[in-house]
Amino acid sequence: MSLTATSSGLRHTVWVLRGNLVTAIAAAAAILLALVAIFGPMLVPYDPVASDVPRALQPPSALHWAGTDQLGRDVFSRLVVATRLDLAIAVTAVSVSFVIGAVIGSLCGYVGGKLDRAVGRFVDVLMAFPLFVLAMAMVAALGNRVENIVIATAIINLPFYIRFARAEVNIRRNLGWVEAARACGDGHVSVVLRFLLPNVLPAMAVQMSLNLGWAILNAAGLSFIGLGVKPPTPEWGIMVAEGARFISTGRWWLVSFPGLALMLAVLCFNLLGDGLRDILDPRMRT
Amino acid sequence: MGTIGATLIRAGRRFLSSLPALFGVLVFTFLLMRVLPGDPAVFFASGPSAGNEEIEVVRKQLGLDRSLPEQLVIYLHDVGRGNLGRSMMTGQPVAKDLRQRLPASLELTLTALVIALIAAVPLGVLAALRPNSLIDHSVRLFCSLGVCVPTFVSGLLLIYVFYYLLGLAPDPTGRIDVFASVPPARTGFLMVDFLLAGDVEGWWAAARQLMLPAFTMALFVIAPLARITRASMLVSLGSDFVRTARSVGLSRWQIVVTYALRNAILPVITIAGIVFSTMLGANVLVEKVFSWPGVASYALDALLVSDYAPVQGFVLLMASIFVAVNLLVDVLYGIADPRATVA
User: Transmembrane stretches, by residue range (chain A) (predicted)?
Assistant: First the structure.
């Protein structure tokens, strides 16, 4: 890509961001989340797993900003430390799904025939399950570990990427410039990798940002029902699960703060995804 | 007659085309549960201290000593006869357990869907009638926030507000107070059974118990429903036939409801099918939060003691319901839009 194209793309981005305050805020929040995930564990005021039973179940105060849980652990420190794990699960799962889905989908769209039909059947079977139930069954089957939450979340995301990449490649495979590439002596692999994929990736990246929020909710849901992450590891879903026992006696902070963290993270990725779509695909603007 | 016939043919054709997916679901569930960790034979032979002989007997009893393809054929045969295996946790056939508990889950999910539709369609219509107004922006804000709050968090917060703070809701565990008398189970749907028994007080108690979980689940799906209603209403309101209807002087109500909404409802029906799938998943979380005695909490309990037959049965049941709902959506689509049946 030439320098002018890059700088005009950048200028376009800045222009869109200036006109779209919400996306700018979402982008800033995403960066902030990433910083918290990287540096948070070094900055927290308390050890996230050290219990201090005499101080158990204290409401938020100047000492403990988000109160303490049933073992006297500082909820704020646990929230901050949990950011890394929650984001890592979602980002890894969505990236794995993105890469595998892009490759399989574009192969199907380009080659067609038997491979396409076989993959199509497989995708149909996956989509016949309610996806959260499928993820739950997979974590149960593969073993109750964090890696398996990542694998399960990646698999339930896969159908969307496969279908997306397949459709996008399929409508382009016989276009003039692809024919031209073939006529110039480019092999099939090279046509797919150098000409077709780059055209499909931007739209898929938008999908990825939108899916991140969904992946976060899924992973937190799984650990809420006791799959994957094990206590005492700080994780937002588990913190809500542990706080659930105390909600009917009015200990609201144990559920609200991790809930708020989940909500803000998901909101941030959703808004960012919408904004990215506006930047990359002006036709979809609503 | 012609339309009904066409609808039936369409439904039949759709059913046939969903059979391969259903078969795939069966194989998938089978394989999934075969790789489950832990040896169920050891688990069910009175614990880890059981002798090798005893374990072998249980293994034979469960059919675990045969090859995988053999086991698959046996499994398919069993499912065909409605035999989903036996739960070691309850000591009952899984099919019986599921049948007993399914009405509780369906009552919850369907109530939630109705609440969501009643809330979402008017919200979407209002937003579409005045684009970029205060109403439109509030609906959009509500929708953006609604999809971000996990069901288990909103459920717990509703408990905090309505049970702890306001004292309006009953103790948020189960379908009915443990000491309350339960009506004879005719349908399994408590709300219906209480009505059949003529017990108004009991009906009210059960309804109050149902409200919080149902609203929790509805909150999660109002957003996609309202959003699609708005988008589809905008298209429909901007179309030529609405302009014509307006020009011949029809009342505003008639234009919006009879002409615009009726034409805008198709995408809403389609999305409702997808939303139902999300709800079957959310059901697991909501049943856990409210200790709702449905199929999902049954499967979760079984999962924690590695009793795999109930989990397998549950996953299969959910997938079958989803396939059936998709079929229903397709048929509804044909009824709502007669053009679709011609193709």
Answer: 21-44, 87-110, 122-143, 149-165, 212-229, 252-273
Q: Quick one: B192 and B266 in the same domain?
A: yes
Contacts of A171 by beta carbon, 8 Å cutoff, 6+ apart: none
pLDDT of A3 strictly over 60: no
Partner residue facing B149 (CB), from A131, A132, A263: A263
Separation CA A181–CA A185 (nearest Å): 7
Query: What pTM does this model have?
Result: 0.84
Give me the domain span that covers residue B192.
94-302
Q: Does A50 touch chain B (CB under 8 A)?
A: no
Neighbours of B12 (CB within 10 A): 11
pLDDT at residue number A276: 78
What mean pLDDT, rounded, does chain A reach?
83
Q: A125 and B33: CB-CB below 8 Å? A: no
Looking from the CA of A26 toward its CB, the CA atoms found within 13 Å total: 23
Q: Which residue of B has its CA nearest to A258?
A: B153
Residues B41 and B4 reside in one and the same domain: yes
- For residues B105 and B175, membership in a common domain is answered with yes
User: What confidence tens digit (pLDDT) does each residue in B43-97 have?
Assistant: 565 555 566 777 777 777 666 777 778 888 888 888 888 888 788 788 888 889 9
Top residue of B35, B149, B153 to mutate, by most chain A CBs within 10 Å, is: B153
Is the ipTM above a cut-off of 0.85? no
Which residue type is seen at B189?
A: F
Q: Tell me which H or E stretch contains B172.
A: none
CB contact under 8 A, A133 and B314: yes
B81 and B222 in a single domain? The answer is no
Nearest CA to B225 out of B335, B103, B99, B117 is that of B117
What are φ and ψ of residue A74, in 5° steps? -75, 115
Q: Are residues B109 and B255 in the same domain?
A: yes
Interface membership of A275 toward B (CB under 8 Å): no
- The per-residue pLDDT for A129 is 85
Residues B211 and B234 in one domain: yes
CATH number for the domain spanning B201: value is: 1.10.3720.10
pLDDT at B62: 67
Number of domains composing chain B? 2
Among A217, A223, A285, the residue to mutate for chain B (most B Cβ within 10 A): A217
C-alpha to C-alpha distance for B242 and B11, rounded to whole angstroms: 32
Distance, first Cα to last Cα, chain B: 17
Same domain for B132 and B221, yes or no, is yes
The arithmetic mean of pLDDT across residues A106-111, rounded, is: 86
| Residue A124, min C-alpha distance to chain B (Å) | 6
Both tokens assigned to A117: 């039909």
Q: Cβ B22–A122 below 8 Å, yes or no?
A: no
What is the structure's pLDDT at A6? 60
